[in-house]
């Protein structure tokens, strides 16, 4: 294997992380990286001065094209669309979480859907993957000045779309653990106390599992829903914690089969948003890595 191909395989995880962050789907990300590999194999490698920059640019361009096609398909998605959760190493220390690059939370990935393909690429490459403005400009076919404006507008758009909170991993973890305990024990009062008054629940069933067509609002309503579900499945529910996209999250099992992955946003005191992934297609990879079956309603 020549040095250039060695470099590709060394960077493969980074390229896949970029593609996944763009697309919210591991299968699509793998397709993008495979496409880039074929393009790299056919390229005149002797004239490439910076292999990493070439590969990142190629990945960005292919991912932008793929995202534009996916956005058309997602307009016809049944119910609410949430990204595919990814099982990450855990439990991680706060220091390890800070050191990780390319692990974009499910919450941020869902918010990025409001951006255009080019704005999403520019924001992710600059803010998450620390790519220079010059390289981003080459990747999306814009001037460096334009890229700076695109990133600035993207950050403003994300801030305006929904407030985000700076919460330490330790604080986030404590709230997630309290929530998991309340779910496991079926304690309504504890659930209600953990959820913010204006909390929001977003569920993705993909038309294959029951879910809500629109977000549910109100901590009391959400607590009642979760409590009722616990009562219905009381003897068969198991709650576990796992690192999903670099954040401590909740796995819910029914009859020892993975039923949902639940990621939480908190303000440091309460849960402000609960993202519940129930689509079996998007849970298949997590279930496979855990060595457990997927839940199928009777």
TrEMBL record:
Residues 8-70 form the RNA polymerase sigma-70 region domain. GO terms for biological process: DNA-templated transcription initiation. SUPFAM superfamilies: NTF2-like (SSF54427), Sigma2 domain of RNA polymerase sigma factors (SSF88946), Sigma3 and sigma4 domains of RNA polymerase sigma factors (SSF88659). CDD domains: Sigma70_r4. GO terms for molecular function: DNA binding; sigma factor activity. Residues 106-158 form the RNA polymerase sigma factor 70 region 4 type domain. It comes from the Bacteria. Interacts transiently with the RNA polymerase catalytic core formed by RpoA, RpoB, RpoC and RpoZ (2 alpha, 1 beta, 1 beta' and 1 omega subunit) to form the RNA polymerase holoenzyme that can initiate transcription. This is RNA polymerase sigma-70 factor. It comes from Dyella soli.
